[in-house]
Amino acid sequence: MDIHDAAEEVVALRAEIAQFRLLANNVPAAIAYYARSGYRCRFANAAYAAMFGQDEQSILGLPLERVIGDQAARQIQPQIDVVLDERSASSYERLLGDGHGGTRHIEVSLLPHLDERGQAVGAFVMIVDITRHRRAELALRESEDRLAKFLHANAEGIAFHKDGLITDANPPLLQLIGRSLDEVRGRPALDFVAADQRERVAAVMNAGAELTYETAVLHADGTRMPVEFIVRTMVYQGERLRMTIVRDLRDRMAARSRIDYLAHHDALTGLPNRTAFIERAEALLPAALAERRTLALLFIDLDHFKRVNDSLGHLAGDALLQTVARRITGCLRGGDLVSRFGGDEFLVLLQGDTPPQAVQDVADKLLAAIGAPVLLEGASISVTPSVGVALFPRDGATPDELIKHADTAMYRAKARGRATSCFFQPAMAVSASAELALESRLAQAVRGQEFVLHFQPQQRLSDGALVGFEALIRWAHPAQGLVGPEAFLPVAESSRLMLPIGRWVLREALRQALRWRTQGLGELPVAVNLSPLQFHAADFVDSVAAALAETGAPGSLLEIELTERMLMDDVDAVRLTLQRLEVLGVGVAVDDFGTGYTSLAHLKQLPIDCLKIDRSFVRDLPHDAGSAAIARAIIEMARSMGMRTVAEGVETEAQRAWMVAHGCQALQGYLLARPMPGAALPGWLASFSPSSPSPAASRSAG
Questions:
Q1: CATH of region 272-424, choose from 3.40.50.720, 3.30.70.1250, 3.30.70.270, 3.60.130.10
Q2: For labelling alongside 176, which of 45, 262, 348, 357 has CA 20 to 30 A away?
Q3: What class has domain 135-253?
């Protein structure tokens, strides 16, 4: 070979090397060659040299540990041994610093270079940066982990399905339908939908709609469960999937049912409430009218129920209402309606063609059943009902009219003495309207303090001295003049206006007693009649104490008059009230004694100072033997128990003489004086003689 040929060959070789290097520098990999002897670099493309902080020239001849570092060299030595000793290719991954504080993932491939004898004389190195792929894989794994955690942590069921077949489901869904993942994966999603809902669910699936709707799924045991589907379409790992969130609606349905129940039922008794009763009645009345059937509506109110709450507490009151509800229901037929109208009021609608006598029989049955004693808090309590009856269509065409008229009849039953029933009559409506007008006018009178007190003196029979007065209220009506208590107190009692009126009476009576003392008339107590509403009010004793404090009067100037009926309702509560009055120094008298049914055993438990013999027993004295026997018994009983007696309604000398002869301590009546304004007392006293009745009084009594 001549020099020219050799030169051309060198040129050609250099061109090939240049082409090889051009190729090596443009492949997406770092390439190098290391000789076995000394593991020195004999070739490196630009990417490889730059990867380790060198260039293509500076890297040549450097040993491996100098290029990649001692630690990395020791780490890959086993791979090098495989290549050189076993003359086979090897590959591995490792992390490589990027020179900026970060790391890269690289995949390294080692290929042995064999000579003609098959001996490994070196190794080719090819490095591919797979950081992007590994990060993508990591992101995918993290995404899958997040999805898995979401699926497992979510309290609601989640299912994925493709082309209608379930691909995955989370534990809450599997628990909801009582299945394992293996049981549901690959099966049609519609297999787990209630049969009557499959057509609808399939239509949603086929339309690819994204919406929320209620449907039902099946448990493995066949139980149908109401659910809500929240359906969405999503792309996951390159696949288009349908994701369905399955929300268990059983609790919501139960709550909805409970709310609906409470909207139509009384929470305490479980009976239909007023709204439900009226709705049902409105549906029944047209049919009854078309068939010319008579229906009866009964309005039941418990007498003095508030006393149970006040004395035993609201829990005992609730227990009593539940007992009454059961007793009412037990008296009725299956088709009859019963409702708790509110508080201690109940409604009953008797269906069928019910004649008045049959209605009366039911009312009597209810009176007996409700009035039977109930054991509460260890005490036997008896609460009586008052029942008002209205008939359809005679007394009203609508439920509201029937209720209104039955309510009116119920109040008439209360006015007759309670614990009874009463049928509505048209005249009652007129009376009710008049009472309503009177109540409104009476409220104005309370605000305007249009009341005055008159006082009737009480005389001691042993020496003729005055021992006190009874305060009697009058209404100074601007148009009608002086109106007696019988005309307005029943309305005041039923409308609770009696409470402010009673408070006014207490204060005014005490102020008058203090005025008399200032005028030198001495300590003359004033007796004040109480209404049941006043006496049984929770703050009654406090109101008495407040009146004494406000006026500055001692308790000895006040005597409270009660009826026998007011003493009979709750012995323990009455005893406590009277004991508290005794502490205040307030006297207690029983008015109209002998007309009630107070037992001696009952009476002796109570701190009572005085018994007032009712005028009905005094009127026929001394000639009527029966009246004389009763009056004598009252006087003897009072004496034996250390109580005073006052005869009411004494109008003749014969009556006074009889009382003196039989040991009665005092009298009150027209024989002594008519009730008079407080300002008239000094003038009356001027003509009063302790030894005999006032001449003026005698003339007026005649």
A1: 3.30.70.270
A2: 262
A3: alpha beta
Lowest mean pLDDT among 370-379, 394-403, 642-651: 370-379
Task: Map out the domains of the chain as residue ranges.
Answer: 3-129, 135-253, 272-424, 438-701
Gap between the Cα atoms of 45 and 565, Å rounded? 119
Cα–Cα distance for residue pair 351/154, rounded to 1 Å: 54
Q: For residue 341, report the phi and psi dihedrals to the nearest 5 degrees.
A: -75, -25
Q: In CATH terms, are 3-129 and 135-253 the same topology?
A: yes
Q: Name the residue with tokens 């630690």.
A: 71
Cα(616)–Cα(632) distance, rounded to whole angstroms? 14
Judge whether residue 667 has pLDDT over 70: yes
Per-residue pLDDT for 571 more than 80? no
pLDDT of 444 > 90? The answer is: no
Q: Is the pLDDT of residue 236 over 70?
A: no
Closest by CA position to 87, among listed 48, 115, 107, 68: 115
Domain 438-701: give its CATH superfamily: EAL domain (3.20.20.450)
CA 656/CA 662 separation, integer angstroms: 10
Band (pLDDT 50/70/90 cuts) for residue 16 is low
- The architecture of the domain spanning 3-129 is 2-Layer Sandwich (3.30)
Query: Which residue type is seen at 278?
Result: I
Q: How far apart are alpha carbons 75 and 72 in whole angstroms? A: 5
479-483 long-range Cβ contacts below 8 angstroms, 24+ apart: 482/452
User: What would the mean pLDDT of 456-483 be, rounded to a whole number?
Assistant: 89
